[in-house]
Structures are given as structure tokens and as C-alpha cells.
Amino acid sequence: MLELGRPPKTDKATILSDVVRMMEQLRTEAQKLKQLDEDLQEKIKELKAEKNELRDEKQRLKADKEKLEQQVKAMSAPSGML
User: Fold this and answer.
1) Highest taxon of the source (predicted)?
2) Angle CA 7–20–3, to nearest 5
């Protein structure tokens, strides 16, 4: 690899060792990125499940609210029995 202030490396063994070192670094980085991707995919699944649970809870709460509103209307309606 070229470095400022140094003559270019022309020795085959040096070039090959540099390439091997770079390949190892790239493999390590690729593995880290693969693990990060897997972790993010798992987090996405968890968040989607939580979103669905919250959506279901919202629907239940909405239905409960409507029932309570109907009960309040029924209780506040004047009764003809007086």
C-alpha cells in the first residue's frame, strides 16, 4: 500500500501480506455488519409485534369507550317513570 513519505512497496511478500491483512479487516467488518443487520431485523420484528399489540389495545379501548358513552347516555336520559 502506498504511504506518504515512503517509497512504493514492490516486494511481493509485502504486498501479499498487506492484501491478507486488508482482507481480514474486510471480513471482520463484513461479519460485524452482518450481525448488526440480524440484530436490526430482530428489532424490526419485535417492534412490528408491539405495534400490532398496541393497535389491538387501541381497538379494545375504543370499544370500551363507546360502551361507556352509551351507558352515560342511558343513565342521563330522562326516565318517563317519574
Assistant:
1) Eukaryota
2) 20
Give CA–CA dist 76/59, Å, rounded. 26
Look up cell 491483512; give the residue. Answer: 21
Each of the 82 residues of the chain gets a pLDDT tens digit; together they read 556 666 666 789 999 999 999 999 999 999 999 999 999 999 999 999 999 999 999 999 999 999 999 999 999 987 755 5
3-state secondary structure the chain: CCCCCCCCCCCHHHHHHHHHHHHHHHHHHHHHHHHHHHHHHHHHHHHHHHHHHHHHHHHHHHHHHHHHHHHHHHHHCCCCCC
> With left for phi above 0 and alpha for psi between -120 and 50, is residue 8 left, alpha or beta?
beta
| 0.85 exceeded by pTM | no
